[in-house]
Write a structure and sequence with these properties.
Layout: H1 11-14, E1 35-36, E2 41-46, E3 49-54, H2 56-62, E4 65-69, E5 76-77, E6 82-88, E7 92-96, E8 101-106, H3 109-112, H4 116-119, E9 128-132, H5 144-151
Antiparallel strand pairs: 1-2, 2-3, 3-9, 4-6, 5-8, 6-7, 8-9
């Protein structure tokens, strides 16, 4: 007899446990450090854009990613709008906009190869780039040390 079905998974606030291993990140080319949300997203500032993806911890909790639905470039979003859908063998979840702004680029390669999210979640598997209407909310997000403490 099989155990109970896995519960629906939402990246926002649903991940617990420890990251194994925590892969430290390089800063952006202008040495601005990466930021992290409590919803397990990473935010990498570069010039006037923010590149957004999920952390290795989130990818590990999701399991094998089998489908990614991305927003259209040019889409105006508000903080906490659901803008990316991720489906894995364990669950489905949404990525919410971390800032108000315009989606200016998406990582189209994830539609063809969603497994990249598991292979390189904090690098090549970024989801979208957003041009925020206001950068000041970035100050509210965690640095790497804060995120490590948050997930431990």
């Amino acid at each position: 007899m099989q155990g109970p079905a896995a519960p629906a998974f939402t990246i926002r606030g649903a991940i617990s446990g420890s990251l194994n291993p925590f892969k430290p990140h390089a800063s952006s080319k202008d040495k601005t450090p990466m930021k992290y949300t409590e919803e397990h997203e990473w935010l990498l500032p570069e010039d006037d854009l923010i590149t957004v993806g999920i952390t290795a911890h989130a990818a590990e909790q999701l399991g094998e990613v089998v489908y990614v639905e991305l927003p259209e470039p040019g889409t105006e979003v508000s903080k906490d709008d659901e803008i990316v859908v991720i489906e894995s063998v364990k669950a489905a979840s949404d990525i919410l906009a971390p800032l108000d702004g315009e989606i200016v680029e998406v990582n189209e390669s994830l539609a063809d190869d969603p497994g990249k999210v598991n292979d390189d979640p904090e690098g090549a598997a970024w989801f979208f780039k957003i041009k925020p209407s206001d950068l000041s909310p970035m100050d509210d997000y965690m640095d790497e040390a804060g995120y490590k403490d948050f997930i431990s």
